[in-house]
Specification:
The complex is a heterodimer of chains A (115) and B (112). Chain A has strands at 4-7, 10-13, 19-25, 31-37, 43-51, 54-57, 64-66, 76-78, 87-94, 105-106, 110-114. Chain A has 115 residues and is an all-beta fold. In chain A, a hairpin with a 2-residue loop joins strand 5 and strand 6. The radius of gyration of chain A is 13 Å and the shape is globular. Chain B is mainly beta and 112 residues long. Chain B has no helices and eleven strands. Chain B has strands spanning 4-7, 10-14, 19-25, 31-37, 44-49, 55-58, 61-65, 71-76, 85-92, 100-102, 106-111. In chain B, the strands form two sheets. In chain B, strands 2, 4, 5, 9, 10 and 11 form a six-stranded mixed sheet that branches. A five-stranded antiparallel sheet of chain B has the order 1-3-8-7-6, with no helix packed on it. In chain B, a hairpin with a 2-residue loop joins strand 6 (55-58) and strand 7. The chains are: A mainly beta (115), B mainly beta (112). Chains A and B meet through strand 4, strand 5 and strand 9 of A and strand 5, strand 9 and strand 10 of B.
Chain lengths: 115, 112
């Protein structure tokens, strides 16, 4: 019963490097989200997708890109890592939000440090 | 964007005490959710509220969806050490993507 799986769990990047955070879910959920959580703070939405082939910006999209070629996968790309992107990143998925049975399932997070 | 104010930011209580935390918003939400996050883990859903005025319990947890749809509270009765963690409220509106807006979290510490 995998749910939402994120890789890697930890990563250290140098300023200017690029990387892709992977997220996959096996629940056939249409909605997927990427959040970042800074120390002592709540989660802020970076990007979201309402289905394969459809993505849109959240609250803090600058410096990130996403794609959604399949229902299962929603990778998050950092092209030019900056220290301000040091954070814990969470991927989440949801089946039919707003339909009375909302429950966003979260992955375990990716802790990223940019030095 | 929408803002959620969650209070208190942290609580340090004795085992067995009751706990109360709340969230207020300047905007209306259609759904209120309460999550708990353990160290090194993602948030896990505790309670979901779908109707204004709704009062829902889950074991020792009770949450209410405010009548105005702009606030919610979570109560934990007879706290135990495993209640330690960060509790987040989240509001969901029927906008594009049905996005969740999260509060800043309440860090709960329980002294045995």
């Amino acid at each position: 019963n995998a749910g939402v799986t994120q890789t890697p769990k930890f990563r250290i990047l140098k300023i200017g490097q690029s990387m892709t955070l992977q997220c996959t879910q096996d629940m056939n959920h249409n909605y997927m989200y990427w959040y970042r959580q800074d120390p002592g703070m709540g989660l802020k939405l970076i990007y979201y997708s309402v289905g394969a082939g459809i993505t849109d910006k959240g609250e803090v999209p600058n410096g990130y890109n996403v794609s959604r070629s399949t229902t299962e996968d929603f990778p998050l790309r950092l092209e030019l890592a900056a220290p301000s992107q040091t954070s814990v990143y969470f991927c989440a998925s949801n089946t039919n939000p707003g339909q009375g049975d909302t429950e966003a399932f979260f992955g375990q997070g990716t802790r990223l440090t940019v030095v | 964007g929408q803002q959620l104010n969650q209070s208190p930011q942290s609580m340090f209580i004795q085992e067995g005490e009751d706990v109360s935390m709340n969230c207020t918003s300047s905007s209306i939400f259609n759904t209120w959710l309460w999550y708990k996050q353990d160290p090194g883990e993602g948030p896990v859903l505790l309670i979901a509220l779908y109707k204004a005025g709704e009062l829902t319990s889950n074991g020792r947890l009770t949450a209410q969806f405010g009548i105005t749809r702009k606030d919610s509270f979570l109560n934990i009765s007879a706290s135990i050490p495993s209640d330690v963690g960060i509790y987040f409220c989240a509001g969901q509106s029927n906008n594009a993507g049905n996005m969740l807006t999260f509060g800043g979290g309440t860090r709960l510490m329980v002294k045995p």
